[in-house]
Amino acid sequence: MNKKNEQTKLRVTDMVNFKQIYANFIPNKTLSQIELVLAEYEKNIKQGILLENPVKRGINCIIKYPVDLKYYRVKLLNVNKDESCEVEFLDYGTIDIVPRRNCFKMDDRISTLPSQVVECELANLKYSKNSLKKSMALYPDFIDLDTILPAKIVYSYVKEGKLKYGIVVYFEKLSNTKETIHHDLISKGFAKLDTKKPINPSVSEFKELEKASKKKSLGMWAEMEESDNEDNDDY
Predict the structure, then answer these.
(1) Which residue range(s) make up the domain with 91?
(2) Would the pTM count as exceeding 0.85?
(3) Is there a single domain that holds both residue 167 and residue 123?
(4) For 157-202, what is each residue's pLDDT tens digit?
(5) d(CA 95, CA 194)
(6) Are the beta carbons of 18 and 121 closer than 8 angstroms?
(7) CA atoms within 13 A of residue 104's CA, in its CB half-sphere
(8) Is 2 part of a structural domain of the chain?
């Protein structure tokens, strides 16, 4: 399990926004094991066994994903009347609709392995509703299974029975805070520090940058001068 202040690497598999990021910590031996088993289906070494009726929501199975024709472990969220199924990718966090004919019985070799996706947020950042949307536009290609990014885990807490991690994501060396998403967002006034959680030294370095953005009335600081309309969700 990754610990506070631990350096790590990750790939972003899906996200809602910078408060809700889904990722895999890399390297991941368990995920590699899962992918090796699923590759047997992709290479036709193993043949998928169709789910037996009645197909009920809540079961775990494997699917052949029509988008890339690869196989994935999923949880069946809903069985629709049009012979499609809503599924959640157990190891990536994505939710999508697939044809029911693409759903197969779970392989026993990987049926008991836990989900390998982790939920994260950019550590100690707070946004206005408008700045949160703008911050997303800066990184249109942030979701990328082929890109491994260096990161630092700042804190973790339990949300709905699962650990959620506060992270700082770097683009180059871990020692260079200018090469972080935090630096980009705070310098443009798209985010400020959320003091409701203890400020870790990895994040406190951005305090002076925040002061400079506030002084220049950039981004959300200009919004707050016009209206006290911050996104005050606690997280």
Answers:
(1) 29-110
(2) yes
(3) yes
(4) 998 888 999 999 998 766 677 899 999 999 999 999 998 878 888 8
(5) 29
(6) yes
(7) 18
(8) no
